[in-house]
Specification:
Blueprint: H1 9-14, E1 41-45, H2 51-59, E2 64-68, H3 72-85, E3 90-93, H4 100-103, E4 109-115, H5 133-142, E5 143-153, H6 156-169, E6 172-177, H7 192-199, E7 205-210
Parallel strand pairs: 1-2, 1-4, 2-3, 4-5
Antiparallel strand pairs: 5-7, 6-7
Length: about 210
Amino acid sequence: MRQRNKPWAKDKLNEYPQYVIASPQEHKGNWDPVFDQKQPLHIEIGTGKGRFITGMAKANPHINYIGIELAESVIVTALDRIIEEEIPNVKLMNVNANDLEEFFAKGDVDRVYLNFSDPWPKSRHAKRRLTYKSFLQIYENILVDQGEIHFKTDNQGLFEYSLTSFSEYGMLLTYVSLDLHKSDYEGNIMTEYEEKFSNKGSRIYRCEVRYQ
């Protein structure tokens, strides 16, 4: 989806260092001081406008969250949400997911969320998918032992590809829903994309996988 450019977004992100982590590499291996309380850390890669990450933070005050988004013009909306609601246990990072190992050491992160990632449908672009094996290696290198990935998408092709990718990597599939909104799953926090697609009748796929 094409996003409207906001030339002022970068300046606004810089104005709120209490919410936007400007130099995340400085915290590698020691993220506890960034938050008010020492708690498990969950990250969302591709946080978009922040509906999911802020909703999770409000619903789970005993967990710290970081929303990661490369597009400045998008993540600034997530910042607006945090400012308005003054949520203490969520921060933002305006960085590329390829560089996660520069910012997090092994064991820094307890869980990774991947929500409605770009499916990159062409085979030649498979390496760009956030569930490709090279990304799974990155997540493993920053997660705790037996850390988890929670994945949601409306794209059946990407979901099937991801299940295969997880399996081939040797991960344990602990939960699968082929129609999340008609399942008995409780506590689902929707993203902006999720609401849009489900309102159009699209099926939402979700799974949870764990490293072994």
